[in-house]
Write a structure and sequence with these properties.
The chain is α/β, with parallel strands linked by helices and 354 residues long. It has 12 helices and 16 strands. It has 3 domains: 38 residues, no CATH class; 81 residues, Winged helix-like DNA-binding domain superfamily/Winged helix DNA-binding domain (Arc Repressor Mutant, subunit A, Orthogonal Bundle); 219 residues, D-Maltodextrin-Binding Protein, domain 2 (3-Layer(aba) Sandwich), CATH 3.40.190. Strands 6, 7, 8, 9, 10, 11, 12, 13, 14, 15 and 16 form an 11-stranded mixed β-sheet that branches. Helix 2 crosses helix 3, helix 2 crosses helix 4 and helix 6 crosses helix 12. The chain is elongated.
Length: 354
């Protein structure tokens, strides 16, 4: 912290530590001497906010825009903080801007400090019985279109002062945004093997096979993973956790034979359905995605033999998360909105995606 000294009449004793104002007020000092008192300027939450913004966006210009200040203002405050600490938090010679080795530790602690300071507002809101502010949610694309319409309408009606911001992101993107504080929670498939996060399981969604009438699987009432291996399988592209889950169901990884599988570069479950409808083969779908199927489409659905392969859908937060009441309310809303049979994992096998 930056130290500044002032000389005042005293007994010629020199103190080089912060002196509490109340001590000074009670001091009786002669006028023919001087006392050197060192004042310590505290860092501010605003400075920490600016530091975190630069770390998050990798740019002083972008950070200033997100903080609604000019770039010189933001730079000056960060420079003052660095000067008071006697270190460099950022290496400005690199693009994007990266923290120094010591800066990484400072930023980590700064995030904790800001998080804890924001809990003060939550305490007040809780006492008042209010639920307001922003709730930033990341949802994987294979869940969002089938779950959110069941939930958001009633949730927003119950909590009209709560502003929801929802993004469809891949799992990797959600984890990153949670780490840097750009999301409050994520709705995604778990387990996630990272101690930085807390997962609250919401439901266990079975996978089903969607088969073309010309497929050899169409005549079966139920299917197995071995059955899927014998047919052309339409897959999501890399980056979607559901792709990994489907491959795990089929017990095959990167050694896929080209003639056995068609890899289609899309993140859309709806596109996979259309490919089966128009062409041939099979794709695997999450059960919630078939809720609006007509009779002809439902006739193409085949369930797996017990134990059913399922994906565990959870509400994910960081360990030291904010907006606890809002997130708990969202959790309750989701659990009440999904079909009862999805709430139990009995006779089901949770499929990972690693």
């Amino acid at each position: 912290m930056r130290r500044s000294q002032v000389r005042i009449p005293s007994s010629a004793l020199f103190f080089d530590f912060p002196l509490h104002p109340s001590i000074f007020c009670r001091a009786q000092v002669p006028v023919d001497y001087y006392l050197c008192i060192t004042f310590v300027d505290s860092m501010t939450l605003v400075q920490l906010e600016y530091v975190i913004a630069v770390d998050t966006y990798g740019s002083f210009v972008a950070a200033a825009e997100k903080c609604f200040v000019t770039q010189p203002t933001l730079s000056m405050q960060i420079h003052k903080l660095e000067e008071s600490l006697g270190i460099r938090i950022f290496d400005r010679s690199r693009q994007p801007v990266l923290p120094t080795e010591l800066g990484v530790e400072v930023i980590k602690q700064a995030r904790i400090v800001l998080t804890e300071s924001r809990k003060i507002t939550e305490i007040v809101q809780h006492r008042k019985g209010e639920l307001e502010g922003e709730l930033r949610i990341g949802v994987i694309p294979t869940v969002a279109p089938y779950l959110l319409p069941r939930v958001l309408g009633s949730f927003m009606h119950r909590f009209p002062k709560l502003q929801l911001q929802v993004w469809e992101y891949t799992t990797e993107k959600i984890l990153h945004e949670l780490r840097v504080g750009l999301l409050d929670c994520g709705i995604l498939s778990t387990p996630i093997y990272d101690a930085a996060f807390i997962a609250r399981p919401l439901f266990y969604e079975p996978f089903v096979a969607y088969v073309a009438p010309k497929s050899s699987l169409f005549s079966k009432r139920e299917v197995t993973s071995e059955d899927i291996l014998s047919d052309k399988l339409w897959l999501l592209n890399e980056g979607h956790c559901m792709r990994g889950q489907v491959l795990n169901i089929c017990q095959r990884k990167r050694s896929l034979e080209p003639e056995g599988t068609f890899e289609y570069n899309t993140g859309s479950v709806e596109t996979l359905k259309r490919m089966v409808d128009i062409n041939s083969g099979t794709t695997i779908l999450p059960e919630l995605s078939i809720a609006d199927f007509d009779e002809e489409q439902l006739a193409r659905i085949r369930y797996f033999r017990s134990p059913e392969p399922v994906r565990e859908i959870s509400l994910l937060t960081t360990q030291n998360f904010l907006k606890k009441r809002a997130i708990e309310a969202l959790e309750n809303e989701i659990v009440s909105a999904v079909p009862e049979r999805l709430k139990s994992k009995k006779k089901k096998e949770i499929v990972g995606f690693d």
